[in-house]
Amino acid sequence: MRTLEKILIDKKISCKSVWFMRQAGRYLPEFRKIRSQNQNFINLCLNSKLSTELTLQPINRYDLDSAIIFSDILLVPYALGQDVKFEKGIGPILENFKIDNFLSVKKESFNKSLSQVYEAISLTRKKLDKNKSLISFVGAPWTLLTYMLKINKDNNFNFEKIKEIKKIDIILDNLIKFLSFHIQNQIEAGADVVQIFDSWAGLLPSEGLEKFCFEQNLRLVTFCKNKKIPVICFPKGIKDNYIKFNNFVKPDGLNLDPEIDPKWAKDNLRGVALQGGLDPKILLGPEDKVFVEAKKYLDIFKDVPYIFNLGHGLVPETNPDLVKKLVKFYRSY
Ligand code: CP3
Q1: pLDDT tens per residue, range 186-221
Q2: Can 61 be counted among the known catalytic residues?
Q3: What pLDDT digit, counting tens, does each position of 242-286 carry?
Q4: What is the Cα gyration radius of the chain?
Q5: Distance 144 CA to ligand 1 centre (A)
Q6: DSSP result, 229-276
Q7: I want to staple 68 with a disulfide (CB 3.0 to 4.6 A). Which of 33, 135, 214, 290 is the partner?
């Protein structure tokens, strides 16, 4: 078994494993080159040859234990009939949600829309060293809804209104159904692990956390456990509710965000492999501080199952050479 799965399943402390969120991304010149020739981001994700190449770029550069498939969480709303555009400097913009379209998509058409993702996974799995894990991922329902229904901090979103959307439970059920297909398809294509990104969990008021975050993550984690698929959750921004999340959802792995004090996490989050935490913005500052911070995480987590990673994705301004030094530092620790 590969180190990532050993840590997640057997909770082996002696195993060491490292990968980074957004390890394939704009901070790499070889990524920017391909990106500049492919203006349409969705089409780039749906080009199995190119997405395989992008997935392997960080693996060719660094001594990492895992690759994460180059794709996006917004491909699921896309395959469920909602067009997605990526505007420079703004981020993703989805066309207006139309519930009838959303509920009418059939499994066959969904699978067909995303077939290139599955093809990329099987191509990557063939090219990737057998000792390295291939990570697949999905967005959690709440985080997908924030994009699908244009919920964000700036448009002073009203949680009461969301609760009142008459068909919210039907929408959630349909998302869970297709996210489960997407997980299953990715695993059948050759992925080893799934990470569930709930990047906007921190937007939820406390009375919405259980229904929109915990329960939906639990449904996906239960699906994974029934299929023996190792699963890592990332409920970003929920502060000390990480404890409730862990007790409620019980994933194999839990990614920490930079707000979570690592000592607190070690004392309070039990029975789970912890991952990440280090603030990716640290990598924009002085080098010595990067290693001091990395050492802090490694010292604290040295006697619990821990996967070295970040508290969010690498940012575009990151110097790729510093990432190399960080991996070396980790290896020599
Ligand atoms: O290397 C990897 O981590 C794998 C690839 C990956 C991407 N998106 C590629 C990508 C992963 C795991 C994601 C997940 C994702 N996508 C999340 C969850 C993690 C997180 O960042 O919170 C979310 C919320 C999205 C939605 C999304 N996709 C946003 C908000 C953006 C624009 C902002 C940004 O960070 O660039 C994207 C575009 C995107 N997805 C890029 C990449 C490499 C940048 C594309 C570009 O402009 O060149």
Answers
A1: 999 999 999 999 999 999 999 999 999 999 999 999
A2: no
A3: 999 999 999 999 999 999 999 999 999 999 999 999 999 999 999
A4: 19
A5: 13
A6: --EEEEETT-GGGHHHHHHHH--SEEEEPTTS-HHHHHHH--SSEEEE
A7: 135
Nearest Cα neighbor of 257 from 315, 194, 309, 193 is 309
Please give the single-letter amino acid code of residue 189: A
Do 209 and 238 touch, CB atoms closer than 8 A?
yes
Which has the closest alpha carbon to 167: 134, 145, 191, 197? 145
Q: What pTM, to 2 d.p., does this model score?
A: 0.97
Question: What phi and psi, each to the nearest 5 degrees, are found at residue 56?
Answer: -85, -10
Q: What's the number of CA atoms in the CB half-sphere (13 Å) around residue 38? A: 17
Please tell me the distance from the alpha carbon of residue 327 to that of residue 330, in angstroms, as a whole number: 5
Distance of CA 25 from the midpoint of ligand 1 (Å): 8
The β-bridge partners of 18 are: 308
Is 22 an active-site residue? yes
Distance of CA 129 to the CA centre of its chain: 22
In one-letter notation, the amino acid at residue 7 is I
Q: What pLDDT does 306 receive?
A: 98
Residue 267: which residues within 8 A CB-CB, separation 6 or more?
none
The token pair at 259 is 């707000």
